Each structure stands twice: as C-alpha cells, then as structure tokens.
Amino acid sequence: GNSVTQMEGPVTLSEEAFLTINCTYTATGYPSLFWYVQYPGEGLQLLLKATKADDKGSNKGFEATYRKETTSFHLEKGSVQVSDSAVYFCALNAGGTSYGKLTFGQGTILTVHP
Amino acid sequence: SAVISQKPSRDICQRGTSLTIQCQVDSQVTMMFWYRQQPGQSLTLIATANQGSEATYESGFVIDKFPISRPNLTFSTLTVSNMSPEDSSIYLCSVEGGWSNYGYTFGSGTRLTVV
Question: Region A43-69: what's the mean pLDDT?
Fold first, then answer.
C-alpha cells in the first residue's frame, strides 16, 4: 500500500537557521506529493505541491523537489522565522482509484526560537 | 481554491451521545473526504462521500459508528455516534481543489472532546 515516512521530530532551530524535514514515500505509479502545515490551534493548510518527477514546489520560502529515484520530497527553507513554528505533514495522492485521498506522514513538529 | 466552512469548531460531549459535524463548500464538488486526527497523531481518512451514493469507508471505520450524509454537491455531515473518550480527536473535511489550483483543501476542523 501507499505510505509516507517523515523524519522524527520535534525539530528545534534558532531563527535564520536552515531547515530540512525529510520525507520519503512508497506508492505504486506516479503519485502527487504535498506538504501541509498546521499552525497552533488552526486547521491544515497546503504549503506546496509537486505532481511529477523533478518538479519543485515552492511557497513562502519553502521548497521541495519530487525525486522519483530516491522516492523523496524533502522540505527545505533557507532561513526560518519564529512564525514558521508549526507541525508539517508530508502527504501523497496516488491517483487512479485513490483520487482525492491523501496519505499522510506522521507529522514533524518545528519550533523556532528567537 | 474552494472555501470550506466547518462547524462546530469544537465541542465537549458526554460519552454515549452523538455529534454531527457539518461541512459546507462554496462550490460544487464531486467528492468530499472526512479525516480524523487523534491527539498528537497524523491524519487518517475515515471515508469518501459522493453525492447520491453511500459513503465509502476505509478499513477500521464503519457506517454505524460514523454515518455520513451527502445530500447535495456542496454539503456533507459526519456523525460520531455513541461516543467514548477514544473518539476525542480533530475531525476534518476535505475537498479536491483541482490540479491547476491549490491541491486539496481542508476545513478548519472540529475539535471533539468526549468526557
């Protein structure tokens, strides 16, 4: 079946540090890949997405590249801010009969200190 | 992208009772999805709701416990029945946002506490 594995958290960084959150996946076919963010007390927001191999999704300074050869979709940001403190979820949609259904990783808690 | 209004935003319920959660979308969508997020956990798909047909449930979820209605293309409800403390979770609805749009959009969630 489909699955998503994220790096263990929580992750604690100082402001302006470089961020990487690893995400690898298992899926049949060619899934679409997503990063979602959940700020404290809020719902889930789409951060970025990539729909085919070598696509790079980007938003708000965050980037992730769809690497089919390594089945990965790592999230990066060059300089984090305190306001980036949130839970980050990697997710995939396998398409076909799974259209619309998302499979999520376990989430990574990020805390950024001033 | 679609805008979803979900309510209630939170509730505290007595065990043995039921709660119905509503999701209203500002545009017509074919499929709506209901997820559960248990405390400190990731999201798990409960069921897919299509208008005009019975919902399709994922493994581990049954209609008697989580009945779903989908009366039209903009609205759906999820009922959590005969609640126990183990049902304390955040419940979220989601719709497809379209490939040229913003992926899959989620409601703001219903934070349920069963006491």
Answer: 94
